[in-house]
Every structure is written in C-alpha cells, then in structure tokens.
Amino acid sequence: MSIASNLETIKSELGSQVTLIAVSKYSTIAEVKEAYDAGHRDFGENKAQDFVAKCEGLPTDIHWHFIGHLQRNKVKYIAPHVHLIHACDSMRLLKEINKEAAKNDRTISCLLQLKIADESEKFGLEKGELLALLKDEQWSKLNNIEVKGLMAMATNTGNTAQLEQEFGEAQSLIAELRNQDLGPQFSWDILSMGMSQDYNIALEKGANMVRIGSAIFKS
Ligand SMILES: *Cc1c(COP(=O)(O)O)cnc(C)c1O
C-alpha cells in the first residue's frame, strides 16, 4: 500500500469531524512530502531536533504538532513553528512555552496531557493533578498560551475493555471541563487520543484528533 492510499483509507474511517495527525517521527522528509502531495497538512513529531529539521525541509503551510514529552530547554526551538503542543504537564513547562511564545510575538495552543495508562513510564497528569494545575494562580500571567483541550495515551495493550476504560476516563474529564467556565484562555474543544493500534476505540470514546504513524507510513 502507498502512503496516499493509507491516508485515504484512514480518513474515510474517521469522518469529517476528526483531525488526523500523520505522525512522521519514523519517516523521511521524502515520505512526508508524499503525504503532503496527497493533500495532507497536519503532521506530528516527538523530538525537537527532528521537528525543526522537518519544518525547515518542507512547505510552510503544514501544521506541525509537537506530540511528545517536551523538555523546557527545547521549547525555544519549536516555538516559532509549532501549531499545537500536545503533552503539557506542568506549570514550569507552560511558563517556558509562554515566554518563548511572547518572544516570537505569537500565541501557542496547548493541550494538557492526562495520564490514563497504567504504565509508570508514561508522562502526563493524573486527574487530580490536572484539576489542581487548572487552579494555579499563575495562569493569568500566561497571556501567550491558549489551552484547547486534552491529550491522552492509553496503555500499549490489545485488551479492548482496558482501552475503553482508559479512553473513557479522558472522555468524562473533558465533559466535566466543558461544563466549567475557566475563562477565555481555556476552550476544551480538542480531545487528542488514539494511535495506529487503538484509534477505533478512542473514536468511540469521543476523540476528535487522532495521532497515527505506522498505519500511514509503515504499512
Ligand atoms: C509515535 C506516537 C504516535 C503514533 O504511534 P503509531 O503507533 O505509530 O501510530 C502517537 N502519539 C504519540 C505521542 C507518539 O509518540
């Protein structure tokens, strides 16, 4: 199968309300160009260095998503180009993003990462930590950040019931947040979850942005 036909197949399953991020972290610039030429515009990278190399080597109308764990000292490299940062999980990181956004005279859109997997190595905030972060008084100083929603990664398992339970946690938290008014800085429109192996279950649980790599580029 080609990259273009993989994209077409997956898009037809997602429907028009769901944004597909083609995760290009294992792909070459030529492979990304193939997807671009097929009309795709949203791509995701998880390492700052690769992110910058791909941005610089490809057309400027691409929306580049930073989907991985982001170290504070790397924020400055991605700040000029990034469309959405998916995995924000601390006030220290958010303050750094805000600082670099201001330097670049722009606003950066962010998602907060909710930890749903029962694997200790995964990053993200437990529900209680996330709610506590939202109460932090420093938000009012982050004039160059907008929080657009939540991102989550499920356990790497074939157990459907477990995946349903984990994605369900993110679905109920975003429903709660959509019912609260935390001010214009927060909108909760986006629920980013689902990868090649589990996106069908994520969609059942309300995902409206999926991050898919291998099923596009490696199959
Ligand atoms: C790699 C990656 C994906 C895509 O994974 P695939 O299994 O290749 O679809 C999605 N989200 C994050 C955060 C990733 O690092």
Task: Tell me what the structure shows.
With 219 residues, the chain is of the alpha/beta class. It has helices at 3-14, 29-37, 48-57, 75-78, 91-103, 127-134, 160-178, 199-204, 214-217, and strands at residues 19-23, 42-45, 63-66, 82-88, 108-115, 145-153, 186-192, 209-212. The chain has an eight-stranded parallel beta sheet with strand order 7-6-5-4-3-2-1-8. β1, α2 (29-37) and β2 form a beta-alpha-beta unit. The N and C termini lie close together (7 Å). The structure holds pyridoxal-5'-phosphate. Pyridoxal-5'-phosphate is lined by residues 23, 25, 46, 67-68, 153, 195-197, 211-215.
Concise structural overview:
The protein is 39% helix and 22% strand. The protein is α/β, with parallel strands linked by helices. The protein has an 8-stranded parallel β-sheet.
Task: Note the main attributes of this structure.
219 residues, alpha/beta, 8-stranded parallel beta sheet, 9 helices, 22% strand, binds pyridoxal-5'-phosphate
Distance between the termini: 7 Å
Order of helices and strands: HEHEHEHEHEHEHEHEH
Overall 3D shape: globular
How are strands sequenced across the largest beta sheet? 7-6-5-4-3-2-1-8
Ions, cofactors and other bound molecules: pyridoxal-5'-phosphate
Mean pLDDT: 96
Topology:
Layout: H1 3-14, E1 19-23, H2 29-37, E2 42-45, H3 48-57, E3 63-66, H4 75-78, E4 82-88, H5 91-103, E5 108-115, H6 127-134, E6 145-153, H7 160-178, E7 186-192, H8 199-204, E8 209-212, H9 214-217
Parallel strand pairs: 1-2, 1-8, 2-3, 3-4, 4-5, 5-6, 6-7
The site of pyridoxal-5'-phosphate has 14 residues, from strand 8 and helix 9.
